[in-house]
Amino acid sequence: MKLEDYELGGTPLRSSDIKKGNVLTTSWEPNLAYAWDDGVAIGRYLAELKNGRIIGRTCYKCNRIMIPPRMFCELCFRPSDEWVYCKDTGIVNTFSICHINWDASRRGPNEPPLIPAVIEIDGASKGMGILHMLSEVDPDDIKVGLKVKAVWKNPGERTGSITDILYFKPLRAPTKRAKATKKRAKATRKRK
Amino acid sequence: MGYRKVAIVGAGITKFVRRAQETAKELAWQATKMALDSCELTLDDVDCVTLGTAPDAFDGVHMKGEYLADGAGAFRKPYMRHYVGGGTGIFSPIHGWFHVASGMADICLVVTEEKMSSCYPHPQGAFITIFDHTTEQPLKPTLIWIFALEMNRYMSTYGISKRDIALVSVKNKKNALDHPSAQLGGEITVDDVLNSEVLAWPVNRLDVSPASDGAAAIVLASERVARRLTDKPVWIDGVGFSLDTAYWATRDLCYPTYVENAARMAYDMAGITEPHKEIHVAEPYDPFDYKELHHMEGLMLCPKGEAARMTADGVTQRDGNLPTCPSGGALGVGNPIAATGLMKIIEIFLQLRGDAGKRQVPGKPRCGLAQAWGDLMQVGTVVVMRI
Ligand SMILES: [Zn+2]
User: Fold this and answer.
1) Which of residues 279-338 of B touch A (CB under 8 A)?
2) Can you give the pLDDT at residue B1?
3) ipTM, two decimals
4) Are residues B115 and B57 in contact, defined by beta-carbon separation less than 8 angstroms?
5) Nearest-CA distance from A107 to chain B in Å?
6) By residue range, what is the domain housing residue B35?
7) Residue B15 and residue A12: Cβ atoms within 8 Å?
8) Can you give the pTM of this predicted structure?
9) Can you give the CATH number for the domain in which B220 is found?
């Protein structure tokens, strides 16, 4: 059989066909609301975020300190063992400079890009990262391996949420040498 | 290992379009009917049906498997629906393979369908619930982030540039010009990719496959039945699937270990020890251009970090030593999530039979592979086929 010998189904429409009413549509905006309870491990994690601390959980068998904490080790498939505080610093494992919002709408001309990153938290086992945001940093200064530190909401404003950490920012201001490298990098990026 | 041999004997597909006038059910019917017609069967001949389609949130139809059953020819038959993200289109035929290989069925219809356009104006919003509801969703993530984060990690680890990666998009969109289902075939340049809108650096608009509506279907048959139905059965000689942990931020995103695990499972079953020599044509999953490279490495078609160089050398062109995505892939043909993988299976089916028309790779390929990927960067699904 050859696809070319068949008349294939699928009738293409354009968005304008919908807007102009060329096709009849029925629409619905579901009003779905959820309340997710915090769970045992993440409950403690959130409570500690409210205290301005990042807590992990150990597994004695594989010797991991796990972030985010979990009540069981998914590798050893046994209960995890102990709570342990990690630092609120870490290193950037990877990052993106994002110009769209969660619903794919474009960010406005005066809105800075979002900078999501995977941050390996100091004190947790190597490679254990969390998703969070970077800010107070020129996008050109970010590279994999950058050391960063959490910027917390004021204690009174914290609610026990991952957003009690506003974002992470570089641990140190860029050095003169880094600034020079950045200039060069910027030039290269333009060429690419 | 005591399995019966299973062949693909027929295939059907719709056009892939940004928005189809047909309902999901009508698209499924069009692909399914074409698949049955292609091997001169009717629904009465079908013993069971497997169906792959996305979470109900895409369509706003609860229990979409049941809703689609009529279009998939599945009513009053043993019927199973499943979903593993983008990996679904390869998982559905694996699911069907089990029914025939086990001896439970002689003929199994495999149907995949996706209608992403119902979630209006854009399905991106439906993707947010992929992320952990407590530790990630409050950060308002978009699905593009996980690709951008993974692509950057991959580029940083191996020193690969966006220019190297853009070649995949150029190749696949060009290949798609010859595919009758294609949504986004075109002659573009590397500079077109690099100059297209930056969505989430390092991801530009032309690095990404489109949202699509479409359906695909195949007919699987046991050896005895297959030989009666066609003189060119294409055998499913290996299947593999593997799922990694959902703690995605604690894995090194530079390498898809779960794809390697799935590939090893399929290669073991097919008796393949040197995949880069024994696989003649491949359809790795390419929802983003870097993913094709990432997956070629996971499939062990080249050493880690080498896929970009292979692409630059032309090895993966249709007339190269190891053509990849001769169909045009998700980047060119389109990406109706669950149906994309089955489109790739159909392409290998046609390539091995010598029925791929203008897309035909030279040299009479005898062994091919299709692969897909999905969920939270965690599932790999692989099928090895021979003629
Ligand atoms: Zn453990």
Assistant:
1) none
2) 59
3) 0.91
4) no
5) 10
6) 6-120+210-386
7) yes
8) 0.94
9) 3.40.47.10
